[in-house]
Amino acid sequence: MIADVKKSAEQKMQKSLEALKVDLSKVRSGRAHTGLLDHVMVDYYGAQTPINQLANVNLIDARTIGVIPWEKKMALAIEKAIRESDLGLNPMPVGETIRVPMPALTEERRRDLIKVVKHEAEAVRIAMRNIRRDANAHLKELLKSKEVSEDDERRGQDEIQKLTDRYITEIDKVLQVKEAELMAV
Question: CA torsion sign, 113 to 118 to 122 to 125?
């Protein structure tokens, strides 16, 4: 019983950590990559749709992303969505292609991005603590229904706390690596 609760909590924590890594990979570090636009949503006939489902997204060069809409009339909507995203990009239409140049990161912009990254990491830390709280509540329910002893419940809570500490340490390591990447010129 306790092992099931711990295993479930560990799986949820692992998924949260993986989600953080994916989110941090989207934060740009000065170089262009197509995954940067994956979470930008475009209003496609009333439905919010990712850009990669409306256009080809490719690299023109190391600092420029090219977006080629499949429907010509969607070019303005795609351009507007990129401009209004929180990425600080300024797309330029050139013929059928929308060029998205990556501006060089200034010291101020790097600091802003670090704040964004820290916010993302804190959100995942909160998620980890919520998972811990839910697991501990489940253990208390098992104790109330007399399915486990008090000692086993206490041991289970200690194991869940160690698990939480381990994953929060992992989050801190991922955050340090991303901060170093952002500050590298």
Answer: positive
